[in-house]
């Protein structure tokens, strides 16, 4: 009996289709493995040992039980296949440019300033509160709710940040790490854009990472942050940065320039 799909395919095409289907089904494993690597501190462990580390050395550095070695080997295989790390010889692991973005601290022997770490962004985007929203997409399309998020959690995104302080902390740290990374690159390569400004309004600037970076690089620029009340309230105005609570869709305080970065969720 010949097997075919609804499209009439058979034989090799059928198996190729199954392979693609499996790839789609299990693609979430790469993201979860990345999250695990960040939570365990694997990039820092490799960097501190540097430039290479064996599996046994990695297990010891992370204070993991030797009984978990086979499982750790499988995790590292996933991470090397997704090019987070490289593996050579007898299971010797090294950082890649990608995992270099996940290193929180410099090697004591390396005096060169490193680019900001994006660990916080990884943990924010892969937080269960965000991930659970995707589980509700089909119910959202069938219903009348505004977003899959509201279907999954029974409230809007900003209401959730108010209800769940831990999620709010993770989210703010994630946005701050992404902003700091971007500003490190922007100020290095395009810093001339800020020359001559007297004032800058960072709209939706969260905890102020971008504004603080600009203020440090250009002390003559008066930097302010506009964000929602639940974001701004816990923050005390410090130094040259003013934190203003408000809704950008209602009013944006005047400034020579306005900075907009990841403002629509």
Automatic annotation (TrEMBL):
One of its GO terms (biological process) is methylation. The keyword Lipid metabolism does not apply. It comes from the Eukaryota. One of its GO terms (molecular function) is O-methyltransferase activity. Keywords: Methyltransferase, S-adenosyl-L-methionine, Transferase. Residues 141-265 form the O-methyltransferase C-terminal domain. Coiled coil: none annotated. The keyword Methyltransferase applies. Residues 22-104 form the O-methyltransferase dimerisation domain. PANTHER family: O-METHYLTRANSFERASE (PTHR11746). This is Tabersonine 16-O-methyltransferase-like. It comes from Iris pallida (Sweet iris). The lineage of its organism: Eukaryota, Viridiplantae, Streptophyta, Embryophyta, Tracheophyta.
